[in-house]
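Service request form, structural biology core

Requester: graduate student, group of Dr. S.
Request type: structure prediction, single chain
Budget code: on file
Notes: please return the result as structure tokens.

Sequence provided:
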Amino acid sequence: MSAPPAADPTPPALNLDALYAAAQAAGFDVAGVAPVEPQGAGWFAPHAARLEAWLAAGFDADMHYIRERVAERVVPEALLPGVRSAVALWMSHRTPTPPAPAERAARVAAYAWGRDYHNVARKAARRLRRWVSAELPGVGSYLSIDTGPVLERAYLARAGVGWIGRSTMLIHPRLGTFGSLAVLFLDVALPAAVAAHPDRCGTCTACVDDCPTQAIGPLGVDARRCISYWTIEHRGLIPPEVRPWLGEWVFGCDICQDVCPWNHKAPPADPAVWQPAADRAWPDLGAWITSPSDALHAQLIGSPLRRARGEGLRRNALIVAANLGQRALIPAAQAVATDDDWVLRATAIWTRRVLGDPTAVQDAARDPDPRVQAEATTPLPDRAT
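Core staff response, request fulfilled:
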């Protein structure tokens, strides 16, 4: 692992070659250092402004946790007083694709085929933080792996690790976009990359053009049109007009990454680290639909799939079953009629109607919840039979 060029030739308090070697030993593929500006100013200001414009446009949908901690996202001193440097870390997670079934099947985003990247990257980052603490006794630090209020991509770009593409994904010139990111804030100044990595997307607009819902625009990704948002973050009933957008994606979406030229020759991640499984990449829709929500959630310990919870995965499975025209799953959808969750019952009525179940409307009328009853008259997609 090579270190980015440093802006300050003064010998650092921490040997950077040793830092990068320690990051690699901990499990990261790439590391760099970015300066942290006071009050989020300087190079960071455009990133803060972009976030605020994105929120003002309502692109966060109902992900209120982003808005609630925006002050910390744009002023890192709120997370670590006296912060001076950000160690930016990248770990590839796109493993070889598990064998696919012969027939068209439901799909899961690649990062969720195996172990939860939060756990894998967090363990690696904690190993690195312990190493830094041993090298710099008394150093203050703050660690973020996706769940913290940190704009990780901004720091990785400034650290020279990669650039933020039109898809808003961080792109590494050799490793592509399929990476898990981490940032370690330190309250000591380390020599940083001379400048941010240059944008190398050029005139390519593949991610914008191929997004089936036109979710990608000048401000980034509009969550209200993003398949990943609806299948992972959204809780409750998915609006009828959105359900066909899911297509075959039961959890997440990789389309903008699959079409990115920088991924075409990217080396695969080590499957021994991530442990991808075929039943996670290509889930059995019938099994998901008929499993009790709590039981399905419990089966997925250690998997990113738990983010959607059992009830969300079952809801998504019902929708994808309809989108794929899997009439063999009508009995599974019929069994949902006795579920305690009205969202699942309502979604199952829609699925049954799309698949041509003649008893769906009658069952909707018998349901005690008017929200389920309403699905008897919900407009169906044009392709419905």
